[in-house]
# Entry
Amino acid sequence: MRIDFYHLITKMTEQVLPVLAEKSLGTGKVLMRVFDGEQADYFDKFLWYYKDDGWIPHGLAGNPDAELQPFLITDSDDNLNGANVLFVVSAVPVDLEKIIKNNEFERVLVIFPDNDVASKDNARKLWSVAVGSGCEHHYWKL
# Structure
């Protein structure tokens, strides 16, 4: 398992997330993201209209056929759609130890803005777990 940490210094989540999502979808990966309910609603709308000539196919957990979505937005770390890539984008806690132990995902991407204290604290906790687990892990400043 590979875990990548994206520390956003000069970029916003809305600039980074779609690029990473498109790259992952382009390789045939199925994605799942972790948000709270308010952020899920925001990014559900955002992914339909983030650029004039495209969108990212996705759905919300709890909607019909959620398990069929290539990109599922949920506030849980349960792998409802059989995803192999997990995006963690906020301070929502995920049980990274369980995720590593169960080897559910090939890759985990943790995206956190520098100006969000709760997200940075969450990323620090996840970094400690990643380092202690022996998983391949990388840190990027954008």
Q: What stands out?
A: Helices lie at 13-26, 37-49, 96-102, 117-133.
